[in-house]
């Protein structure tokens, strides 16, 4: 069993469409959606490229999740703490 992590551009309405689309792809056992950081984790035996192709076919922009996306989502959610220094 393999876990595929994707970055999918979506709003609240797209989650239902995303789940419906992925329910038609054979080999997918579980779909986890983190809408706040636009991350979708898919567990199963499905081919990675077929999953992305299916999402793009219904009009969703999808790409494989990378470390770069992890850094950007951290800044977007505001979970990074900055040290403030006072020079005066």
Can you count the helices?
Answer: 3
Largest sheet: number of strands, sense, barrel closure: 4 strands, antiparallel
- The pLDDT mean sits at 80
Q: What is the share of helical residues?
A: 25-40%
Write the H/E string, N to C: EHEEHEH
Task: Give the termini distance in whole angstroms.
Answer: 57 Å
Number of strands: 4
Q: What oligomerization state is this entry in?
A: single chain
Question: What is the general shape?
Answer: globular
Secondary-structure-based class equals alpha+beta
GO molecular function: metal ion binding
Protein name: Heavy metal-associated domain containing protein
Provide an overview of this structure.
InterPro entries: HMA_dom, HMA_dom_sf. The protein is an alpha+beta fold and 88 residues long. It has three helices and four strands, in the order E-H-E-E-H-E-H. It has helices spanning 12-23, 48-57, 67-77; strands at 2-8, 28-34, 39-44, 62-64. The chain has a four-stranded antiparallel sheet, with helices on one face. A hairpin with a 4-residue loop joins strand 2 (28-34) and strand 3 (39-44). The model is unreliable at 80-88 (pLDDT under 50).
Features:
88 residues, alpha+beta, 38% helix
Give me the secondary-structure topology:
Layout: E1 2-8, H1 12-23, E2 28-34, E3 39-44, H2 48-57, E4 62-64, H3 67-77
Antiparallel strand pairs: 1-3, 1-4, 2-3
């Amino acid at each position: 069993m393999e876990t595929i992590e994707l970055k999918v551009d979506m709003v609240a309405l797209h989650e239902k469409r995303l789940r419906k689309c992925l329910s038609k792809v054979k080999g997918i056992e579980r779909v986890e959606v983190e809408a706040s950081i636009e991350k979708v984790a898919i567990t199963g035996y499905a081919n990675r490229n077929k999953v992305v192709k299916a999402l793009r076919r219904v009009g969703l922009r999808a790409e494989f999740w990378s470390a770069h996306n992890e850094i950007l989502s951290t800044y977007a959610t505001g979970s990074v703490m900055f040290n403030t220094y006072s020079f005066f």
